Amino acid sequence: NRPRDELFAFWREFSNLASFMENIASVIPRDDGSYRWVIRGPLSRDVSLDTRVVTEREGELIAWRSIEGSTIRAEGKVHFRDAPGGRGTEVEAIVAYQPPAGDVGRVIAKLFGREPEVQGRRDLKRFKMLMETGEIADARIAPAEITGEN
Fold it and tell me: In this predicted model, what pLDDT tens digit does every residue of 89-124 receive, in sequence order?
């Protein structure tokens, strides 16, 4: 329920992705126009990914691809379209990647709840919450909230 240009601008500032994507620790622009993504992996093992934007249509599409030398081969795109009936914006994200350690890495990620298909849906829901309300609802309760300790 936000204008597409606003959502596009927020997403295009890749450092914002860490604010709603649970597995993204950071996205840092580099001097050569590429971006270094630090991704939280299973067993507290972060991995990095170096990408470059390959296609961009203002307010509509951002597509990226990993660059040579990146530890993970990946590509993705996010589309922003006006929702029917003037009801905000539809956001569609498509990501393809080759995990570290191949199929073994994919199985380990599933075991630790970091399966991309599931995580992607959760991240888009978190993006929606953040953009519509300014915050992300979290059902987890911190131990201090239960005991009343500070």
Answer: 999 999 887 766 655 555 555 544 556 667 788 899
Q: What pTM was estimated for this model as a whole?
A: 0.81
Contact 21, 107 (CB under 8 A): no
> What does residue 61 show for φ and ψ, rounded to 5 degrees?
-150, 140
Using CB atoms within 10 Å of the CB of residue 87, give its burial: 0 to 12 exposed, 13 to 18 middle, 19+ buried: exposed
Distance separating alpha carbons of residues 11 and 4, to the nearest angstrom: 11
70: left (phi over 0), alpha (psi -120 to 50) or beta: beta
Q: How many CB atoms lie within 10 A of CB 122?
A: 14
% of the chain exceeding 90 in pLDDT: 57
First to last CA, the chain: 37
